[in-house]
Amino acid sequence: MRKNGLNDSELVLSYKNGNEEAFKTLVERHKSRIYTAIYLIVKDAEIAEDLLQDSFVKAINTIQSGRYNEEGKFLPWILRIAHNLAIDYFRKQKRYPVVNMEYTNPVFNTVEFSEGTYEDEQIRHETHNLLYQLIAELPDAQRDVLIRRHFMQMSFQEIADATGVSINTALGRMRYALINLRKKMESNNIAYDQNLYPG
After folding, report:
1. How many helices and strands, by DSSP H and E, does the chain display?
2. CATH number, domain 108-199
3. At what angle do helices 8-16 and 45-64 cross, to 10 degrees?
4. Residue ranges covered by each domain of the chain
5. How far, in Å, are 38, 58, 82, 174 from residue 85 at the CA level?
6. Minimal CA–CA distance to 60: which of 78, 46, 73?
7. If one looks up domain 1-105 in CATH, what number appears?
8. Do domains 1-105 and 108-199 have the same CATH topology?
9. Tell me, what DSSP letter sits at residue 148?
10. Which of 17-31, 52-66, 77-91 is predicted with the least confidence, judged by mean pLDDT?
11. What is the percentage of the chain residues whose pLDDT exceeds 70?
């Protein structure tokens, strides 16, 4: 993605070289998606806002200390920071995170409607809410790998490392998650992208 003529890695480099505006551009570009990723876990707007700020502070500290080495992969990197902070929050609260898929976001927006009418917007909103509900009904391990893969853009190796399983187990969970989600979508007459949710 480009804004002001620079991609993420170029903006990070510019920030390293002292351009404060470069990091502001990164914040504006990605804050909505990062906030949503956090909110899906913590289900509290104020906590999500605090953790969003913490995520960017941690990113700044890492970049300024010279420890940032994710050239060209800023968004997946900071999404992992945000995810880890959200999980840490729940560990401190001695609660297990439950992903709330009722919050509208573009992650699994696979349904296309014509623009313009109130009825179309209502149908789209209701369909998205149902889709998030179906995802929330998946077994924990399947839902987790689906969120990490599609939302956080993690590789299967990264997912395997983060969850303490083999890459084959991560792949298997993803396969069953997609199969189960496809069946749920078909039974509820939800149109879906055949490439994202293969048969």
Report:
1. 8, 0
2. 1.10.10.10
3. 60
4. 1-105, 108-199
5. 9, 10, 5, 24
6. 78
7. 1.10.1740.10
8. no
9. I
10. 77-91
11. 71
